[in-house]
Each structure stands twice: as C-alpha cells, then as structure tokens.
Q: What sequence folds into this?
C-alpha cells in the first residue's frame, strides 16, 4: 500500500475488480476521473 513511487511490494491488481464485484451486488455506482498529472480517482456511490 502507499505511494506507487515508494512502495517496495507489488500488488496483485485485484483491488478494483473486488470493489466492482461488491458494488454490483449492492447496486452502487463507480465513477473514474483523471488525476492529472497521473493516475485516476475512483468514487463509489452507494444508493
């Protein structure tokens, strides 16, 4: 966890997949916005 530039361990890449799975179960909405100069911001809205 933490800043991509400073962390030493690599992730599995499953985080967003798991969040989407549970968001779908709960009827939530996920949006994504560009985070200039790099990256993205994901927002989960529970109804």
A:
């Amino acid at each position: 966890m933490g800043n991509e530039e400073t962390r030493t361990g690599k992730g599995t890449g499953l985080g967003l997949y798991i969040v989407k799975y549970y968001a779908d179960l709960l009827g939530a909405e996920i949006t994504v916005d560009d985070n200039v100069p790099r990256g993205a911001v994901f927002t989960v809205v529970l109804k």
Notes: The mean pLDDT is 87. DSSP finds one helix and two strands in the chain. Residues 27 and 47 are 7 Å apart (CA to CA).
